[in-house]
Amino acid sequence: xxxxxxxxxxxxxxxxxxxxxxxxxxxxxxxxxxxxxxxxxxxxxxxxxxxxxxxxxxxxxxxxxxxxxxxxxxxxxxxxxxxxxxxxxxxxxxxxxxxxxxxxxxxxxxxxxxxxxxxxxxxxxxxxxxxxxxxxxxxxxxxxxxxxxxxxxxxxxxxxxxxxxxxxxxxxxxxxxxxxxxxxxxxxxxxxxxxxxxxxxxxxxxxxxxxxxxxxxxxxxxxxxxxxxxxxxxxxxxxxxxxxxxxxxxxxxxxxxxxxxxxxxxxxxxxxxxxxxxxxxxxxxxxxxxxxxxxxxxxxxxxxxxxxxxxxxxxxxxxxxxxxxxxxxxxxxxxxxxxxxxxxxxxxxxxxxxxxxxxxxxxxxxxxxxxxxxxxxxxxxxxxxxxxxxxxxxxxxxxxxxxxxxxxxxxxxxxxxxxxxxxxxxxxxxxxxxxxxxxxxxxxxxxxxxxxxxxxxxxxxxxxxxxxxxx
Length: 471
Description:
- It holds the Pfam family Polysacc_deac_1.
- This protein is an alpha/beta fold.
- Helices cover about 45% and strands about 10% of the residues.
- The protein contains 17 helices and nine strands.
- The strands form three sheets. Strands 1, 2, 3, 8 and 9 form a five-stranded parallel sheet that branches.
- α4 packs across α5, α10 crosses α11 and α12 crosses α17.
- The longest helix is centred in the N-terminal third of the chain and has 25 residues.
- The protein is elongated and about 90 Å long.
């Protein structure tokens, strides 16, 4: 099967309102990444020094050497930056979520004690702050298990949330496989939580952010001043708050690092943003675990409907082989396309089926046209239509014609077929009986090439309506 795993569909064009507690218009969730003491360092058994997210422009790993400046910058986050953030958030009455690297937490007993006393959530940020892109699944699984064990030992309870950050392609699946986490945040693909199918089990995903994130103080294309950081956070908040006012409340994540925003020249921007949002009505500033608990209670996993991209060929053809009248070959060809989650809906599957219809030869498409019955014709009278065609014709009252109307349809059917070589086709659910008759009279006059194109479009429209009934 040619299947594409990425999900471009998400919550769709009109996401449901998050329905945050107390009718909040927005959930603003602050994350404090605690990584200091968990970064790459030969003291930690790593092959080289750290080179990521620091004040050193163009930093590169130093193989088999300690990088004193890099270590010192990370140390600042633990020694000063953390406490500056702690004072800000406790003073504002906000409890953030900590993404805590387990080995870093083990080296920070006072900071962990302060987090717990303030009621901050401590989620797992992995065992070490290293890149897992080249790790195999077995090695990554072992580190994940050790991260959970060490976190539990250091914090006193197991982490309920997970965010690795420097992931492999396997990270999310492996984290879900543990069944240890109420939520996983290693995605950046939405403004709302969502449920992911993890081998038949529903796993809650709470997406994170790399744009509303102080890491951009340490990237080439990023924030050069606190004013830029504040302006970007403010504009993001304003846009999402307005959506909440309009009845589609969202979530805003703000990512922070002790050694970055914890510097005096940056903390003021964060302070201004906290004060800014506190001037609005209906702003909820929860920990991530509270979002997870709310989502599970208010937006539980939906009953699983049709999932064409997961069907075996026989099931797929049996289910969709009749969408185009008596033409299962269209479904057979569509099954071989690159299908994915985007096709698990009426619009998506209609696209796949129509592609096969449109790419077929003219004679094949003509065969599909000729597979359609005459409107109110002999097959209808003999009750030999498909169930779909019977319901469709009945929806427009074509099952209850007078003798005169039936004779009129028969005469027009004959004239149309004689001229064009295929039956008159129209999506009857879009019309009433009078409208169908008007279209009949107008389209008989068309040139056959024009009418062939029109009929094909009507075939596609009928297919779409049938799929909407299925989904």
